Amino acid sequence: MKLAACIKRYLEVAGGFGRPMHLSQFGLPKAEIEKLVSAWDEDYQISRYLLLSREEGGHLAGFPPEARVFLVNGFECTHLTFHPDIQKLV
């Protein structure tokens, strides 16, 4: 999935920049999401405009147990937040 398509999906789900979106909401297989987000995390031009976080408990209850937590470059995370300036890259 191209970055522009991911940003479009993010905006549809999160409702705007600066709001966290659960990684499973990209609608891709878990392994693909982990690979994609890990690549973004390693790319300075992209990583400076995204924030990865890990939510606990009730924030994850609505997601299937196998898709609640993702491993991105060795770190557990659940949500991604894009800064508006990510638009400069697409």
Fill in the keyword field for this structure.
90 residues; alpha+beta; Arc Repressor Mutant, subunit A; two-stranded antiparallel ribbon; 3 helices; 5 strands; globular
Structure description:
With 90 residues, this protein is α+β, with helices and mostly antiparallel strands. The chain has a single domain (3-89), classed as Orthogonal Bundle (Arc Repressor Mutant, subunit A), CATH 1.10.10. It contains three helices and five strands; from the N terminus they run αβααββββ. A three-stranded antiparallel beta sheet has the order 1-5-2, with helices on one face. A two-stranded antiparallel ribbon has the order 3-4. The longest helix has 13 residues, at 30-42. The mean pLDDT is 93.
Short description:
The chain has 90 residues and is of the alpha+beta class. It has helices at residues 3-14, 30-42, 44-47; strands at residues 21-22, 50-53, 70-72, 75-77, 79-82. It has a single domain (3-89), classed as Arc Repressor Mutant, subunit A, CATH 1.10.10.
